[in-house]
Amino acid sequence: MAERKKRYALVIDSRKCIACRACAVACRAENQVPLAYTRNWLNQELRGELPHLLAISEPEQCHHCAQPACVRVCPTGASYQRADGIVAINDRECVGCRYCMIACPFDARFFREDRGVVEKCDLCKARVDRGEMPACVETCPSKVRVFGDINDPESNVAQLLTTRQFRVKKSEAGTAPQIYYLL
Amino acid sequence: MKQIEWGYLIICYLFLGGLSAGLFFVSALSTFLQKDGTPTRIARWGALLSPWPVTFGSALLVFDLGNWYRFYKLFLHFQYVSPMSVGAWLLLFFSFVSLLYAFAWLTPEQRNTLFARLPKRLPRLQIFNLDLTAHRRALAAIGLPIAVGVGIYTGVLLGAVQSRPFWNTNLVAQMFLFSALSTGCAVLLLAIAMSRDTMADSELRLLYGLDISFMILEFFVVIPYLVHGELSSRAVQDSLKLILGGPFTFTFWVLFLGMGLLLPLVIELVEFAPAMFSKSALAVRRPVVACTAVLILAGGFLLRYVFVFGGQMSKFE
Amino acid sequence: MNRRRFLGFAVTGVAGATLASSVSYLPWSSPEKTAGVQRKEIPTTCEMCVNKCSIIAVVENGKVLKLNPNPESPRSRGMVCARGNAGLQQVYDPARLKRPLLRTGARGEGKWKAVSWDEAWDFAASKLSEVKQKHGPQASIWSSTESFAETFFKSLGLAFGSPNVERHPTLCLASVNLAYSLTFGTVPSFDLANAKYIIMSGANRLESFIMPDTVDLIGSTTDRKARLIYLDPRFTVTASKADEWYALRPHSDLAFILALINVIVTENRYDKQFVSAYTVGMDQLAEHVKPFTPEWAEVETEIPARDIRRIAREFSDAAPRAVYYAGRRSSWYRDDFHMRRAQAILNAIVGNWDRQGGMVPNAKITLGELMFLPWDDPQAPRVDDMDKNFPLAAKGDGAYLKMRENILAGVPYPVKAWMVHKQDPMNALPEQSKTLRMIEQMDFIGVIDVQMSDTAWYADVVFPESTYLERHDPIEMLAGIQPVVVMRQPAIAPLHDTKPTLEIVQGLAKRLGLSQYFDYTVEQWNEAQAKDLPIDAPLDYLRKHGVWSPPDGPKYGATLTPDHRFGTESGKIELYSARLKQFGYDPLPVYTTPSQPPPGKFRLILGRKAFFTQANTTNNAWLNTFQPENRLWIHPKAASGIGIRDGDLVQVTSAAGSIRVKARVSEEIRPDCVFTLHGYGKKSQWQRLAAGEKSGGCDAEIIETAWDTVSGGGAFHETFVKVTKV
Fold this sequence. Notes:
The structure holds 3 protein chains of 3 kinds.
Chain A: E1 8-12, H1 22-31, E2 41-49, E3 52-60, H2 69-73, E4 79-81, E5 87-89, H3 99-103, E6 110-112, E7 117-119, H4 125-129, H5 135-139, E8 145-149, H6 156-163, E9 166-167, E10 179-182
Parallel strand pairs in A: 1-10
Antiparallel strand pairs in A: 1-8, 2-3, 4-5, 6-7, 9-10
Chain B: H1 8-33, H2 41-49, H3 51-64, H4 83-104, H5 108-116, H6 136-159, H7 171-194, H8 201-230, H9 234-240, H10 249-276, H11 286-312
Helix pairs in contact in B: 1-2, 1-3, 1-6, 1-7, 1-11, 2-4, 3-4, 4-6, 6-7, 7-8, 7-11, 8-10, 10-11
Chain C: H1 3-21, E1 39-45, E2 54-60, E3 63-69, H2 82-85, H3 87-92, E4 101-103, E5 112-114, H4 117-135, E6 140-144, H5 150-160, E7 165-167, H6 174-184, E8 189-190, E9 197-201, H7 212-222, E10 227-231, H8 237-241, E11 244-246, H9 253-266, H10 272-278, E12 279-280, H11 282-288, H12 294-301, H13 305-318, E13 322-325, H14 336-349, E14 359-360, H15 386-389, H16 400-409, E15 417-421, H17 425-428, H18 432-441, E16 444-449, H19 454-457, E17 461-464, E18 476-478, E19 484-486, H20 501-511, H21 522-530, H22 538-545, E20 547-548, E21 573-574, H23 578-582, E22 601-605, H24 621-624, E23 631-634, H25 636-642, E24 649-653, E25 658-665, E26 673-676, E27 720-725
Parallel strand pairs in C: 6-7, 6-15, 9-10, 9-13, 10-11, 12-21, 15-16, 16-17, 22-26, 23-25
Antiparallel strand pairs in C: 1-2, 2-3, 4-5, 4-17, 8-14, 18-19, 19-20, 22-27, 23-26, 24-25, 24-27
């Protein structure tokens, strides 16, 4: 019987996000990202007038799309997608043309001036390969992010997606993003 | 985008790449069309000029890279779905062919002068001192599709990016191609206008004919781009606001479309019209020809300016 | 050239390029680790705030790379917050304290000389001895904030002969702790994971302090297991997640609570069985709350009477899984104690005591004790004269602000020496000008810290402590609904010439003739503490796991037996407190309409952000980046009245001082209040990111001195400020 292909994805429940920034700092420590850059970010919005106010905190990072435009446009193959769906960058092959940055609908990539290469969230693939969660998932006090293989019907993520309504961002860009925001 | 990544280096490269493609195209066409075996000035000048803009542009491109000394990695891979990878290889072949083609258009005296300058200690290099004159048509034939490729791919580079609504249409490739070909004509017109020799009627007819055709084609690509865009999805409509009220409105309509495309088109039509259906010689004045050419070149540059910046400022919400 | 040559040329060219690629190795190493790297995972305990989460330090080649959550700790609920993750910066901060320093210029000038430990100890001990000789040992204060090693520091002060031990609670939660203690005999924890109805006054649990209550609260509210009613003049993160948020008039929480009690009592919604079995004073309470109707409370609080009534009914319906959350930092108002008392009474009468989803007395794990030589208790009375001023308050914590007043007045006796451990009184105390005057009066100031705090900046000698990732500490028992024992062991050897607190204390003790009281190592201390734990080889277990908790889970109801004696005078839960009356305080909370800021002024309120811990993390680069500058929150209506827009620099003036800070004009605060963060405008130039006016104003300069009348704890929301455009 053919082995089912994995697809790692994130399910995010923004209602639980308290904007504490644990994920931002954990990512910085885990991936040694200098202060000038960040691999994940928080979309914050405030609406209304006193006393009827709404505050939204929505975490975001690379969506590890199923049809990643960034991988398609890379001229050296430095930008690649693993069999399990994680989109990563091979530092050694990256020439720093930044085409992938322009191709990304989410502006998830950034250019490292000090190294001349492009960088982004890689779902802490070294941790994932050791059987651990990405740092942002593990560290969160509210457990806003859930990580797993959506092709595995027993996984947390798969079950959340069958029992809850969700949306993805910028689906019109046609990249099939794999961060699912619960509604 | 959080910040603009591709700036003036890329804009210049796209312009110069298109220019080389256009020069090669006109020269090659001229080579095929010459009737009595006497080579035309256009063919020669086009051939001799064609390799250099793209070479300089490619240098700009290499230095725009994050790690410029890794540029050779582009030639260790061929990612056929990546317009940049395809383009890099096209550039490589085009550079090679256009240099050979230019070499084929050197007169024997020019060739010998060139080889006389080579170091005397390497006499074996003299074996390259070959007369390729007979191969001009063959080289033109090989290089023509590659030149068209170079002209088109600069547009595909942008057009294939699905996440930038300002670009994501196959019309961008056409727009850039016709603009590129037109700028090629413009450089040759400028060269003719600035040279001390008389301007041959056959040259003018060819250049005017080609240039007017290219500009009309370009115009009829810009129109559907706008119309289709306005009738398209909300994201595309929003992105078009960049040139419909946004920061690039003046540059696009007045500088590019007006002064860079329509004005030269009208001037050339006015100059060419009397001679179009008759055998009478074109009555053109050098200053007008030169200015028209400069306007076209500025227009070509500004087209790429608007598109490269505007595209990076457009996104899906 | 023929075709063959042409082809040959081309092929050579391509071959050459391919050859060039084989020398393409460039020395950028990706974050992926290559084989042969030494990687260790060391369980330990975080020290970035008071929660003491269990973490696992990942160490590679002698460098701490990451701090991961330790999933085995029920206390930390498998998380590490922003500050916990940023703990690495405390270790590798180039501006941290690296060796002992002696002041060479004037105090606050920032001129230091690096010295050996012997020199530093000799100097400190000689100065302390001098003070002891001239004025007696009581002429010294030993102030600290909580840490695992605080006990050694305190013991040194007591062994030295000084009764003046001042601790963190007097600046934080003295009033709430005392209120609950006097009511229940102990301070309970709140079972937010299982509660169904939660009311909070301030206590911005989702933002001001990340702890298990945070995790439980966000889980229970967003998963719709609990309803959250939240009162705060400011739209905090907790307000944004609450089911109902009331921007009540500041300082009127007591009115709200009294009205809730009124409804619950008059509509007979209280737990009669519980009240009669376990409490005293119900009759007095019922009589007392008669005037506090929801209609009366609406006038005081600006919360609609019908909502107050409805909330009271919903609260009692949900009981016993209904709690009025006590909060942590209760340093608000002069009568804060009474508001917390009212909370405690409300919680008591709905019978949520020692029940799942209610308030649960903390379970403990018994630790052993190292037997060491006890010293004689200090003879002199405390300088803050707790017995006279705050007879019911926790004497061991002191009353910091009263102490400062007395010291400045020179009563009841002069105080000339000040030893500080881990605390930053320059920022922790309000009215910084007074702290500076107190500093001037000192003949000697010695500070133990990991960074050059503002207080260290004004000290005479600075002892650099090893950071929490570089030292062994005593094991600590953290009481709670699910108690834990945690251990702290070094992830790496100290990077610089630093020492743990016990060794610093021992160095001083030796020269003060007090070594006999500190003749043990921290290992011996831990051996003694751990030996009674019901596990095999407890220290080995703790070294391997970092934390231990009794496996049988939380227990409820242990105190709900007829013969249980509560730790109060009557042995029961005291709704009416005769003890309070005995000492001249109101036995039941009395409400007086609080003063409000006069026209043209605003009440300054305080609060915290999730990525800072008080004032000591604002210089941590990984945290500072989230808010590099302080801001004054002000409502748009108030701002336009003064003519300021978002980002304008404003002058904020109180009776205590004046600062400059940029305005943040936002709907998220009542028009009669302004809000600012803590820990900016530092004086210490070693805290580059948070220092000086460019980082924004220092709140400690403008908060006026006030304290809670019963507990002596700070009251920091009593300041009215004038705000003008600069």
